[in-house]
Prior knowledge:
The chain is mainly beta. It has one domain: Methylamine Dehydrogenase, Chain H. It is built from no helices and 33 strands. The chain has a 4-stranded antiparallel β-sheet with strand order 4-33-32-31, with no helix packed on it. Strands 5-6-7-8 form a 4-stranded antiparallel β-sheet, with no helix packed on it. It has a 4-stranded antiparallel β-sheet with strand order 9-10-11-12, with no helix packed on it.
Amino acid sequence: MIRCGSRLHRFSHTDSSFVRIVVAAPNPEKLKLVKDFGYPMPVFDVAPVPQSTRCFFGAADFQVSEVDLAATKWEPRKLYAHGSYVTTVTLAGSALISGGYDGQLIWWDTAKNQMIRSVEAHQKWIRKAVTSPDGRYVASVADDMVCRVWDAVSGKPVHELKGHAPQTPQHFGSMLYAVTYSADGKYLATGDKVGHIVIWDATTGKSVTTLEAPVMYTWDPKARLHSIGGIRSLAFSPDGKRLAVGGMGKVGNIDHLEGKARVELFDWQSGQTIAQQEHDGQKGLVNRLAFAPDGSWLAAAGGGTQGFFYFLNSDAKKILKDEKAPMHVHEFSLSPSGEEFVLVGHNRIAQYKLG
Length: 355
């Protein structure tokens, strides 16, 4: 290790010919709100353009839009529309892939500003789509309880991953909210409404193991005969050894997001629970989790009546920084350096920086 200025550089030798340099992530205590923009509808997802101040986002107005966060005037540009809420956007090279409640995945050429293809991807609402670290694949999950993996270039299906029950134990329809890749692209994780998690081999499409986080699911058998909660976010640690799971603790009145924000951390290969952390000061769903590039902290964001944005230490047992977000947060992006966040949610887009 050497120190360059105020930043520590860690050198990792993976073989005799390659040296990987990881720069220590900035301190969460230096978090500051840079810009805060209003939008007439809830915004569900954001995809920043690498090495740029531009980003794409999807919202409840059925639109996929583009905006330059550094522009003097806030002027989002509508690109194309889905048939319902646009719940997810992700970039694979110059292709933007979006999904929504219409069950469609749409490929858009960002260089030519034209649609490449539209695919009937799922039979129910699409909740999330993510691109593999190498940009070759896109994985999508929906309330048909299937994770589908697509070739990012051709749009052809690669795998169909089925490991989540279509109904809850109370015989109501379940939901499949979350999907994420490990940093090396070897594994996929998916999580559903009742707290069931499946780890998949991304190459073969075979199930590797399963985990359970049942506290994140609340069933009301008396007043409402209804349920709330579920796994809303997943994140592998940079070394791939740990899996963070986000949601909400048990709820008294399931008509409200009144449970404590909850994060569980697993050593997923052994099945051991490392931490079960509930935030005493924040209520609602943890909709997004992300580790620092060097694994030194874990960022969590979401909301109930109000939004929150906070940081945990690497073992998810201690809160390092607690921030009240300007809105209920649905999603955020994290820059490769760990220095910049773009949060999107209820009628707002907010830009934060560390340092």
